[in-house]
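Sanity check

After download, print the first record. It should look like this:
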Amino acid sequence: MEHLNKTFFLWLNAPEHPNALVVTLATFFAEWLIWAVPILIGIGWLRGNENTRKVLLVATASGLLGLLTNQIIGMAWSHPRPFMVGLGHTLIPHVADSSFPSDHLTLWWSVAISFVLQRGLRSVGVALALFGLPIAWSRIYLGVHFPLDMLGAIAVAAFSAVLTLHEARWYLGPIYRLATRIHSLLFGRLIALGWVRE
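Expected structure tokens:
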């Protein structure tokens, strides 16, 4: 398995003299696109109704659980990144921590799968899931992840999305009430002006 992992990595990793435009595009997908998740959740919360907000809270819980799961996996089994074993070409800086699974992709796909599993934002979830593919490619192309890290991210994301949705009855009500109270305190003036939903 590790031999295949390294073989596929070298096939997808950037060449010694990569095209500058491809590197720029890959860097955008690898480092900047992830910010679409909190922006999307923030805008959705401000403009959405109660059902949309609850979908967003479950998706947020899914993303957080996915990242927590990754930390536990990393402590139990630390897998080196490609540059830590002198493999391929690394085009962006990254801390030398465990590569498996990919945190970026776990967060992205945890939210995407959570949206797909719930009513209200399924089409957004499908779009996010599809955009996860260039994120996965870019992290390998730029030399900070192996292909197996992406498969691990899919597994963790699916686990997190299913579990947080299945167990939502235990946490969603109290968290929703707390979040709406904080929302009212922070945005009371904008709610009164009609710029933000109550």
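If your output differs, re-run the checksum step. Summary of this record's structure: The first helix runs from residue 2 to 12.
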